[in-house]
C-alpha cells in the first residue's frame, strides 16, 4: 500500500445521560460531521 496524508479532525462530546440520550448526541455528531464535510463556511461567525 501507499502512505499518504489526510486531513482529519476528532470531535468528542460529553453528556449527562439523565438529560441527553446517547442516540441524540450521536445524531448531533453525525449532523455536525456532514456540515463540516459539505459546508464548513456555514460554521464561521
Describe the structure.
It is a single chain. By secondary structure, this protein is mainly alpha-helical. Helices cover about 40% and strands about 0% of the residues. The chain is built from 1 helix and no strands. It is extended. The model has no long low-confidence stretch (mean pLDDT about 90).
Strand content: under 5%
Task: Kindly report how far apart the N and C termini lie.
Answer: 41 Å
In total, the number of strands is: 0
Give the averaged pLDDT, no decimals. 92
The Cα radius of gyration reads 14 Å
Element-level helix/strand string = H
Estimate the helix proportion, in percent: 25-40%
Unreliable residue runs: none
Largest sheet: none
Q: What sort of overall outline do the alpha carbons produce when their principal axes are compared?
A: extended
Count of individual helical segments? 1
Return the structural class.
mainly alpha
SSE inventory with pairings:
Blueprint: H1 22-38
Brief account:
With 45 residues, this protein is mainly α.
Fill in the keyword field for this structure.
45 residues; mainly alpha; 0% strand; 38% helix
Amino acid at each position: 500500500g501507499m502512505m499518504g496524508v489526510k486531513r482529519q479532525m476528532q470531535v468528542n462530546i460529553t453528556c449527562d445521560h439523565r438529560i441527553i440520550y446517547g442516540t441524540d448526541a450521536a445524531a448531533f455528531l453525525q449532523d455536525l460531521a456532514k456540515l463540516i464535510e459539505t459546508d464548513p463556511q456555514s460554521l464561521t461567525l
